[in-house]
Design goal:
Elements lengths: L23 H19 L5 E5 L9 H15 L3 E4 L5 H12 L3 E6 L13 E5 L2 H10 L1 E6 L4 H15 L8 E4 L1 H16 L13 E3 L2 H17 L8
Parallel strand pairs: 1-2, 1-5, 2-3, 3-4, 5-6, 6-7
Helix pairs in contact: 2-3, 2-7
């Protein structure tokens, strides 16, 4: 009778296979360098608002125009603007920040198919590691605005909501702009995670959906004013 259990695969005798983990320790220094550069560059630019959205939307599309308007309005209120530094919504938000005369910050990421930084970011950081970049999006921000986008945008939104839910970061507004886009996500959260008891009803209050630029600005301005009044102005996560 044949043995039904698979035998473990062993490397051939003789020379051992190369161990590619040998450089792991040195990666720590690259990670540290990214954090240090990010902290030193962005700390003077607090308070900022991080804006997310698709890299695939061209100028002239409604969402591109919305991102530009939101960023310019926030910029004129004195908030610096942080984006992922690439094209699409990121470009639009950096462009709006420049028009509003606040700092326009791009946190670019090095990808196998290189993401070219947009020309509207006057402060640019190039990241190797997504997790370092995520910290920079959060640490000096007093609000998140997410426009329609793909996996990267969804990743940032749910990262922020998880940090808020678990109390791991300073509370601030997470605003999902574009009800026609985000309503399906909200319906799914109610129909599946909430109905199955995987999130609490109050977790649906961790974010707001809006189609109003003025509401975006008002919510972030109100939160920032309350934070100043409470004496927590310079606390960062």
């Amino acid at each position: 009778m044949a043995d039904s259990c698979e035998k473990p695969v062993r490397p051939p005798r003789g020379r051992r296979p190369a161990d590619f983990r040998g450089k792991d320790t040195w990666s720590v220094f690259r990670i540290m360098a990214e954090f240090v550069e990010g902290f030193q560059t962005l700390r003077p630019l607090w308070p900022a608002v991080s804006i997310f959205g698709s890299a695939r939307l061209a100028p002239g599309t409604p969402t591109y125009a919305d991102a530009e308007r939101i960023a310019e309005a926030l910029s004129r209120e004195g908030f610096n603007i942080i984006t992922g530094g690439g094209p699409g919504v990121m470009e639009a938000a950096n462009r709006g920040a420049a028009e509003g005369q606040s700092a326009s910050i791009g946190l670019n990421i090095k990808l196998p198919r290189e993401q070219d930084p947009n020309p509207y970011a006057d402060t640019l950081l190039n990241h190797r590691y997504f997790f370092v970049r995520k910290v920079m999006f959060v640490k000096y921000a007093v609000g998140f605005v997410a426009l329609p986008g793909g996996f990267g945008t969804l990743d940032e939104v749910f990262e922020a909501l998880t940090l808020k839910q678990t109390g791991k970061m300073k509370d601030f507004p997470v605003l999902l702009y574009g009800s026609d886009y985000w309503s399906g996500v909200v319906d799914w959260l109610r129909d599946q995670p909430l109905r199955r008891g995987m999130i609490a009803r109050g977790d649906l209050d961790l974010f707001q959906v809006t189609d109003d630029v003025d509401e975006v600005v008002a919510r972030i301005r109100q939160h920032y004013s309350e934070r100043i009044a409470s004496g927590g102005a310079h606390e960062t996560p």
